[in-house]
Structure formats: C-alpha cells, structure tokens
Specification:
The chain is an alpha/beta fold. The protein has 8 helices and 12 strands. A hairpin with a 2-residue loop joins strand 4 and strand 5. It is globular.
Length: 243
C-alpha cells in the first residue's frame, strides 16, 4: 500500500502487452473494466474455459467477489455454457489450472480449495492432478508453473510446492526446466507463449540462454506496475481456446 500503482504507467504497460500479444499472432477479445474493481485486469482468474464450457470463478476474498457477475454476463453473451461450483468452495479459474496433455494440473492452498477439483474435473470431463502451493508469494499455480505444449516443456519453481507436488511434477513425461529463486520472483512462469514467442516481465541471462536453446523468442515487457499487485503477464490473460 505504500507503493501504489501509477495509473498512467499501468495503462501504458497494459497497452504494450496488448500490442505484443496481437503482434505474436493471437486474436484478442476484451471485457469492459468496471469502476472500483481494479483487479478485473487479472482476467486469468475469471474462470476456466474448455471448448464452449466455462467454470466461473468463486473468488476467495470479498475484494474480487463483485467481479463474478460481470464475468458471467460476458461469457453468457459470447455463447459459453456457464458452470459454477457448489456454494462456499473457492475456485479462481485459470490462475490455478494448467492444461497438460489430456489432464489438468490444479493448484490449491491459497486462493482455490481442493474441494473444487473433483467437480471441475467432472464438468470438463478431464482427469486432474492436485498440487498444493506452500509459498504465499506464489498464491496461484500460474505464478510458479507453466506448460508449453509445442515444446512439451514444463517450467516450474520447485520451492513453491510441497514435496508430494514436486514428485507429481517430476514424474510427468515432459522436459522439465527448474528455475531459480530470482527468476521465480520475476514471475517467469507467469509468461505467455504464442508461436514460440515468450512474453514475460524479465528473466536472468542464464535462463534466457536456456530458452533460446528451445527456440523461444523472448519478448520482455515492462509490467512493473502490475507486479506491485503480485500479477504478471499471464495473470492479465485468459486463454479462450484449448487443445
């Protein structure tokens, strides 16, 4: 609270992110912002989409609960079949979900309840692996783990997970890139990959070289105003298409 976001800089940074996503080859749909709901910019938490279905989020904290009605309206107008989880169960959408091959990796511990996992899997007709988050700096799964399907590559920060979660991740049949604490706190896992363009806040030179070995084109973006709120590049985007 002693280091608030600068609205002008934040607006400009959002604009640069929007343009970078478009230049990378993605189509973008927008939702209108709502006054007094600044966290709506973190649209990854709006819900979890698969095909024409969306599981709408049930936010844990009251500061974001007012967003729910606006997201429901937007998805309904776009023709999605909207689903909600049983009352009293917190679920924060794609923020705590990563599609992996034919299953979903689902996070819990800070914002999402583990009780949300069985009904979410049933609605989307997918198996899942539950991963407990233990480091409050990494309160959503998308802050500490990413899967790049084109490369069959998992990028993650082991210290964000309990030992059982690390064991689950390490068993997955993919290349695994474990990142350092410095890169983790840059929210490298909270990046967006579009046609091998990796949009991120920043990363160390060592990790940049590893990314280049995988053929990734690194596009650094100044999202410092959003980082103040604990949100990175990927927090501001909800993927509407899944394989």
């Amino acid at each position: 609270m002693n280091n608030p976001a600068d609205p002008v800089r934040a607006h400009n940074q959002w604009g640069m992110l929007y343009k970078a996503i478009c230049r990378s080859g993605a189509d973008v749909s927008l939702i209108e912002p709502v006054e007094e709901m600044p966290d709506m910019v973190f649209t990854a938490n709006a819900g979890l989409v698969h095909g024409d279905k969306v599981i709408l989020s049930s936010f844990k904290y009251k500061e974001r609960q007012g967003e729910e009605v606006h997201y429901r309206k937007w998805f309904s107008e776009q023709g999605y079949h909207c689903h909600t989880l049983p009352h009293g169960i917190s679920f924060e959408g794609e923020g705590d979900a990563v599609y992996y091959k034919d299953i979903i990796l689902l996070g819990y511990g800070f914002r999402t309840d583990i009780l949300s996992h069985p009904p979410a899997g049933k609605i989307l007709d997918r198996g899942y692996i539950s991963l407990e988050l233990i480091n409050p700096h990494f309160y959503h799964l998308d802050t500490c783990l990413q899967y790049i399907e084109e490369l069959n590559l998992i990028i993650y920060y082991p210290e964000a997970f309990n030992p059982k979660g690390v064991e689950h991740i390490e068993r997955l049949p993919s290349d695994i890139l474990r990142i350092s604490k410095e890169d983790a706190f840059y929210f490298v896992c909270n990046s967006i990959c579009i046609d091998k363009n990796l949009l991120l806040y920043k990363c160390t030179g060592t990790l940049a070289n590893k990314f280049k070995e995988y053929g990734l084109n690194i596009i650094p973006l100044d999202t410092s105003e959003f980082m103040k709120s604990g949100g990175g590049v990927r927090c501001m985007v909800l993927r509407l298409t899944t394989s």
